[in-house]
Write a structure and sequence with these properties.
The chain has nine helices and 14 strands. The protein is α+β, with helices and mostly antiparallel strands and 413 residues long. β7 and β8 form a beta hairpin. The chain binds calcium ion (CA) (2 copies). The site of one calcium ion has 7 residues, from loops.
């Protein structure tokens, strides 16, 4: 069975429903995954402002004190004002105190207080895609979230206790793959369905065009979380690196074991924004200082990596300053699964405030993909620029690669 790049691209257009305001998005491995990650192998080888803005009442009165009576009225109003504010603060404090007393925050997690924020791209974000707009108000209850991406050490503990086998360590499920392919696609030889995962090629001499993503993505037999670059690689000494090659069900399995959940997209974005209402990035709006705050692809993607941020590949978690919520690597390093189904038109349906939104109730148009957030060490301004807070990318559930991981939450309500 031979697939030409043209056929693959044609199939890609059929499967891909994501609006493409910018053609550069096309290099994403998730595009590859739209065809089924294994097909790529076949191709590649055969060819608020938080407004937790609690709304403080501000009483403004111009009281002129020309008479004793007016002075009396002024004092009475002042007392009323002070007692009101005092009462409000007491209630707020009591809530926080009682919340803090009740909540046992596990090591490595951060409490995100309930609040309201604008989800989606700010109007001035020139990189914003159609599916990030319009931004809309969302209210969220308090929750706990991992300060870092889940690390190899954390995932290893899960594996040790459960003997769980990740999707990338299992033979390719032809029935599942077939479901993602055009009718009539013939089953490839079993030798092509051995366990493996997608790996970014680190040495690329020449890039013919930026549409042909098979130039830098490769299906590698034997690649998985313990062997990120293939059978000859390992994670020894990389315990504090984010775990990779995680498919959606792998992330869910870890969450069940840890008694956690994946964040919703709204939770992830609220936590990443950390009250910076008009920011594009977790550190503000200045794209020129990205190398100080996130592990991305500095230089010209995909073969001229300047390593200006200090890392050509993955970085250990906490290698860069946290955002204002004390969360690390919400921008870059590895993509992070969230629990929402991907629907490119989802934000268009938002014309009132949403309360704890969970995303679409079901996949749209048989588009069985979940959202991933934050971009990775492969994101670059001349391509996906998905290290922006509001950026969203669809990913098929069985897809895994060496730049995709996750973090977890504990819902408090
Ligand atoms: Ca980098
Ligand atoms: Ca990340």
């Amino acid at each position: 069975m031979n697939y030409s790049i043209e056929i693959i691209n044609k199939m890609s257009r059929v499967f891909d429903k994501k609006p493409t305001k910018k053609p550069n998005i096309i290099n994403s491995p998730e595009r590859v995954n739209l065809l089924g990650k294994h097909v790529d192998y076949i191709v590649g080888t055969l060819q608020s402002a938080t407004f937790n803005k609690e709304i403080y009442l501000i009483f403004k009165r111009n009281i002129r004190t020309h008479s004793i009576f007016r002075v009396f009225i002024a004092k009475a109003l002042l007392c009323l004002l002070l007692s009101t504010i005092s009462c409000h603060k007491k209630n707020n404090s009591a809530k926080n105190n009682s919340t803090n007393k009740k909540i046992d925050i596990p090591d490595g997690m951060v409490l995100i207080q309930k609040g309201i924020f604008y989800q989606g791209a700010i109007p001035d974000d020139s990189f914003a895609m159609q599916d990030e707009q319009p931004r809309h108000q969302v209210f969220l209850d308090s929750f706990l979230i991992d300060a870092t991406e889940v690390t190899n050490a954390q995932f290893a503990k899960f594996i040790e206790e459960t003997s769980y086998i990740t999707v990338a360590e299992r033979p390719v499920d032809w029935k599942e793959l077939k479901r993602q392919l055009p009718n009539g696609t013939q089953k490839p030889p079993d030798s092509l369905l051995l366990p493996g995962s997608l790996v970014f090629k680190e040495s690329i001499d020449k890039v013919i065009d930026l549409v042909n993503y098979s130039q830098w993505w490769e299906w590698r037999t034997g690649a998985n979380w313990k062997h990120p670059k293939g059978p000859d690689s390992d994670i020894i000494g990389k315990e504090q690196y984010p775990v990779t090659h995680i498919a959606y069900e792998d992330a869910l399995a870890y969450c069940r074991w840890a008694q956690r959940e994946l964040p919703t997209e709204a939770q992830w974005e609220y936590a990443a924004r950390a009250g910076l209402d008009n920011a594009i990035f977790t550190w503000g709006i200045d794209a020129e200082i990205i190398h100080k705050y996130a592990n991305t692809f500095t230089g010209i993607f995909p073969n001229q990596n300047t390593e200006k941020d200090g890392f050509k590949n993955l970085a250990p978690v906490k290698s860069y300053p946290p955002n204002k919520n004390k969360l690390y690597d919400m921008s870059g390093n590895v993509w992070e699964w969230v629990s929402d189904w991907y629907d490119p038109m989802y934000y268009n349906k938002k014309n009132t405030i949403s309360y704890n939104p969970q995303g679409p109730s079901e996949p749209s148009n048989n588009n069985t993909q979940k959202v991933i957030k934050g971009g990775s060490f492969l994101c670059n301004a001349n391509y996906c620029a998905s290290y922006r807070i509001s950026a969203r990318m669809p990913s098929t559930l069985d897809s895994s690669s060496d730049h995709k991981g996750f973090r977890t939450v504990i819902n408090l309500k």
